[in-house]
Amino acid sequence: MARPVWAGVLSFGLVSLPVGLYTATDSHTIHFHQLQRGTSDRIRNRRVNERTGKEVELDDIVKGYETGDEYVLVEPEELDDIAPGRSRTLEVTGFVDLDEVDPIFFDKTYYIGPKGKEYGKVYALLEKALAKANRAGVATFVMRGRAYLVALKAENGILTLHTLHWADEIRNPREELSDLPGKTRVSAREMKMAEQLISALSMDWDPDSFRDTFQEKVAALIEAKKTGDSVEKAEPPAGATGAVELMDALRASVERARGPKAGSPKEGSGKAGGDKAATAAGKRSAKPTGAKKRVTARSGPLKSLTKAELYKRASAAQLPGRSTMTHDQLAEALTAGARGAGGQRAA
Questions:
Q1: Which candidate, 201, 215, 216, places its Cα nearest to that of 316?
Q2: Residue of 61, 57, 35 whose CA lies nearest to 46
Q3: DSSP characters over 124-175
Q4: What gap in Å lies between CA 162 and CA 103, rounded to an integer?
Q5: pTM, whole model, 2 decimals?
Q6: Percent of the residues in the chain that have a pLDDT greater than 70, as a whole number
Q7: Same domain, yes or no, for 149 and 216?
Q8: Beta-carbon neighbour count of residue 320 at 10 Å?
Q9: What is the pLDDT of residues 178-212, one digit of tens each?
Q10: Which of 10, 40, 105, 157 could form a disulfide with 164 if both were Cys (CB 3.0 to 4.6 A apart)?
């Protein structure tokens, strides 16, 4: 069972609910130690007095704010003394429409759990009321010596807490980005083609179909260096598209996105279509039975697989460019590869 990173009282109006705050996400980043080159010696960071060169214990360290020629010293307990509710109260100021909160404000997510079964009814009531109203409770509280602006939300039957950036922490893009376009003219043909490309590449949101392939490549690199093997280098990035070739690039992208999909029905359902199908069937029947079965086994169900499953097959087949392909492109490339392998075996 996870331990809360913060515990206190959530209050809204005159209602108080003892709660615990739990980290909602994990990081799967591969962590490295620092070593001195040419040795196996670890490099460690130490707290050292810059005047004496001696290491200082953590209990002997206080915070200091520089004010010119001297420091104002602040003890950890002094920060707790001035914190709202002594760092143990999460008081909801009000409730806002979720649609009014710009996504740029959201930072980190925590789960909120009641501190005891006897508080289950209060917890459930707040969760259900927030879900029905589609609103979020806005609050401030102090955790680990820092004040946070937060949004309290109802999600999938539980309460979640999202830390928010303060308004003065959001940078103005007009001031930060020097090359933003001004009033740029876009032709109707270019706009239509861009809309067609977006439509052709539309997909359902399925987070399970995406993986951190870079971390997988880091793990593969480590394994390869252990065994003395080499690893495939990443493909170079695509060149920038200029204004002159923009229309051609859009058109080619739409055509590729709308290309034949693996497992899709062939064109023509009438006599002409039937003749084509019969001719194709006749040609296929001339191939060895084993090759036909191999192709069908790989190409038939491909489109029904998830992108993650397709990518796993593409990795096993060492398909070049697989990391940048969409679901349908992976299915199409795997199908083409299976057909090519079948043709070679038949020959």
A1: 216
A2: 57
A3: HHHHHHHHHHTEEEEEEEEETTEEEEEEEEEETTEEEEEEE--GGGS--HHH
A4: 11
A5: 0.58
A6: 81
A7: no
A8: 10
A9: 887 877 888 888 888 888 888 888 888 888 888 88
A10: 105
